[in-house]
Amino acid sequence: MGQEPRHILSLSGGKDSAALAIYLRDRIPQIEYIFHDTDKELEETYDYIHRLEAILGKPIVRTTPEDSFDHWLKVYRGMLPSNHRRWCTKMLKLKPFEAYVGDGPVINYVGLRADENRTGYISTKPNILAVYPFQDDGLVRADIIRILEDSGLGLPPYMDWGRSRSGCYFCFYQQKIEWVRLLEKHPKYFALAMEYEEKAVLHGEQFYWCKNEPLRELAKPERVQAIKDNWETAEARRRKARKNISLAETLGGLEPEDDPHLRDGCLVCSI
Ligand code: SF4
């Protein structure tokens, strides 16, 4: 007889994986929950994972990588990660996941919903079978919000101030409006991100987290105001186009289809 598979769910600190953990808690009691801690997450994310752990009633294993972001940054000779050279996901999320999983058979539960059309790297290891319970059972965004509310966990607290993502505070997938919100909510994280950017110059590279704009420029009051105004205008257009979507569904102010992080499939960091 073949070896029984382990059942594993990776939590990102995002709402969909949290809802899936709650959804599967009683259905698959032997499930193992893991969280790949980059050590660069927002404190709200750590708090959310902690509260989720209490609701699940079992530990969420932290697969903190042996080597930190700053270690890998040195290995990559000061080259900060970006969409085109995403070593951060590989070194801080995927490798720790595969190390934790090992070589035995594993069923990997992924929180993609039935109302979205995302893809992304899960794992190509042949012993890992990815399954999508929300898609199989037809659960959409409103169902996920209901699961989170009924459990008492609610949405991730960073959504209260308009951030759409879990993951590193400096994640290069952030939209400009999210950088502005980070600046206003967590100026110390914004300053740290700016420091990384400015140090990159010392390694001979002009690197900006946010496309072609240095964070120091983006933080200027007139730029902050312009970004907010642009966002308000775009948001008014979007609201018009989706009159029938409930307030709960638009919490956070960013929809997945607006969000390149989600569109581009960095599932392990953000789902
Ligand atoms: S959240 Fe962003 S910066 Fe952090 S590991 Fe994922 S892709 Fe990289």
Give a written overview of the molecule.
The protein is an alpha/beta fold and 271 residues long. It has two domains: 6-161, Rossmann fold; 176-258, no CATH class. 46% of the residues lie in helices and 8% in strands. It contains 13 helices and five strands. It has a five-stranded parallel beta sheet, with helices on one face. It is globular, with a radius of gyration of 19 Å. Iron/sulfur cluster (SF4) binds at residues 38, 81, 86, 88-89, 92-93, 167-168, 171, 173, 266, 269. Residues 7-119 form the Phosphoadenosine phosphosulphate reductase domain.
Q: Estimate nothing, just give the exact number of structural domains.
A: 2
Q: Distance N terminus to C terminus?
A: 35 Å
Bound molecules: iron/sulfur cluster
CATH topology of the largest domain: the name is: Rossmann fold
Provide the structure class.
Answer: alpha/beta
* Element order: H for helix, E for strand: EHEHEHHEEHHHHHHHHH
> What oligomeric state do these chains adopt?
single chain
CATH superfamily of the largest domain: HUPs
Number of strands: 5
> Can you summarize the main beta sheet?
5 strands, parallel
Give the name of the CATH architecture of the largest domain: 3-Layer(aba) Sandwich
Strand order of the largest sheet: 3-2-1-4-5
Q: In which range does the helix fraction lie?
A: 40-55%
TL;DR?
The protein has 13 helices and five strands. The chain is α/β, with parallel strands linked by helices and 271 residues long. It has a five-stranded parallel sheet, with helices on one face.
